[in-house]
Amino acid sequence: MSEVWNETECLAYDPFAGDDYGLGFVDFGKKIVTGRGEYGCHICRGPIAKGERHRVDSCILDGERMHARFCGLCCAAMALSWTDNGAAIEAREPEITTNKP
């Protein structure tokens, strides 16, 4: 998957679709930024390097200001979701493992 991606298509994707945060949620929107520091991706849990173009969603949830950041590869997968039925973004999510006795 290429790291070149369509910013408009990435921003149109809703990574939190179906989540209901109730009355304590205030959405401040989303935008594409160039990182001024190092961060972690909300989807794949991988690193976001300083200087990397990535998406950030901002909100207040239960009185706390929060930011969800998405690395360039996950942004590319979000942009592809309009043509691949979400396959690329699903592939970016780490496997959830459980420790069952």
Tell me, what is the CATH class? Alpha Beta
Order of helices and strands: HEEEEEHH
Enumerate how many helices there are, as a single number.
3
Q: What does the radius of gyration come to?
A: 14 Å
Strand content: 25-35%
Number of E strands: 5
Helix/sheet category: alpha+beta
Q: Averaging pLDDT over every residue, what do you get? A: 89
Number of domains: 1
Second rung of CATH, namely the architecture: 2-Layer Sandwich
CATH topology: first zn-finger domain of poly(adp-ribose) polymerase-1
Distance between the termini: 38 Å
Helix share of residues?
10-25%
Major sheet: order of its strands? 1-4-5
Q: Which word captures the global form? A: globular
Low-pLDDT sequence parts: none
Q: Could you describe the largest sheet, including whether it forms a barrel?
A: 3 strands, antiparallel
Give a description of the structure.
There is one protein chain. With 101 residues, the protein is of the alpha+beta class. The protein has a single domain (7-92), classed as first zn-finger domain of poly(adp-ribose) polymerase-1 (2-Layer Sandwich), CATH 3.30.1740. The protein is 25% helix and 30% strand. The protein has 3 helices and 5 strands, in the order H-E-E-E-E-E-H-H. The protein has helices spanning 7-12, 72-84, 87-92; strands spanning 25-34, 39-40, 47-48, 53-61, 64-70. The strands form 2 sheets. A 3-stranded antiparallel sheet has the order 1-4-5. A two-stranded antiparallel sheet has the order 2-3. A hairpin with a 2-residue loop joins strand 4 (53-61) and strand 5. The longest helix is centred in the C-terminal third of the chain and has 13 residues, at 72-84. It starts with 6 loop residues before the first helix and ends in a 9-residue tail after the last helix. The mean pLDDT is 89.
